[in-house]
């Protein structure tokens, strides 16, 4: 496993408040990583920095084998380099079918204008079926996305992100609002996706994280408080004091 993303010594201050404080964190390729921590620990801001939405005051964010300095690039350039982000709320096109949503995501990979003129080739059609299979929506391909359950919409959006072939997928609280069986399906899906890429998941649900069965990073006050296996992290007294014991 080689290092794909390396964030080092990064700090961000909002109106005098240090939300990220000399944070260093790295992820390999492939790797599945869970990011936990109390409210306000800086988890979302960390993802904002990686995706270029927030520029830090200091520190380095280095990407890929060519050690590209991500801080020099815009959000859309970073997305094109292969960093996909799934926000908490699903954003699918409700009036379009599952198939069309996936088709649009495939077309979008080739640039914003290709969506307008794009016609699916046989290969694209096969890829759409493959993506639907991967996220467990094969039986729903011709249904409108609007009638899917909350969990299914989340899977569709993950499928749309996978259509773009990201090398790093950032996922914010996927388990929120899901039924227990949807959660189980989601852990399987993310584990599978992380076999060939880096996947970082922010989550508060400890059962969900246990099922992910991966390395865990606990953030607190904008820095790494503990990192390692879930058992290692959850036994850490500071993690218990600031997060688990609350
Ligand atoms: N744009 C902003 N302006 C001012 N303060 C901000 C801004 N964005 C984040 N913060 C503050 O930075 C801190 C870290 O916030 P962040 O959202 O990254 O935490 P989090 O770990 O994702 O929390 P949660 O689990 O509640 O989502 C918080 O105290 C938050 O209020």
From TrEMBL:
<dbReference type="InterPro" id="IPR003593">
    <property type="entry name" value="AAA+_ATPase"/>
</dbReference>
<keyword id="KW-0547">Nucleotide-binding</keyword>
<keyword id="KW-0067">ATP-binding</keyword>
<protein>
    <submittedName>
        <fullName>Urea ABC transporter ATP-binding protein UrtD</fullName>
    </submittedName>
</protein>
<dbReference type="GO" id="GO:0016887">
    <property type="term" value="F:ATP hydrolysis activity"/>
</dbReference>
<dbReference type="InterPro" id="IPR017781">
    <property type="entry name" value="ABC_transptr_urea_ATP-bd_UrtD"/>
</dbReference>
<dbReference type="InterPro" id="IPR003439">
    <property type="entry name" value="ABC_transporter-like_ATP-bd"/>
</dbReference>
<dbReference type="InterPro" id="IPR027417">
    <property type="entry name" value="P-loop_NTPase"/>
</dbReference>
<keyword id="KW-0813">Transport</keyword>
<dbReference type="GO" id="GO:0005886">
    <property type="term" value="C:plasma membrane"/>
</dbReference>
<dbReference type="InterPro" id="IPR051120">
    <property type="entry name" value="ABC_AA/LPS_Transport"/>
</dbReference>
<dbReference type="Pfam" id="PF00005">
    <property type="entry name" value="ABC_tran"/>
</dbReference>
<feature type="domain" description="ABC transporter">
    <location>
        <begin position="5"/>
        <end position="246"/>
    </location>
</feature>
<dbReference type="GO" id="GO:0005524">
    <property type="term" value="F:ATP binding"/>
</dbReference>
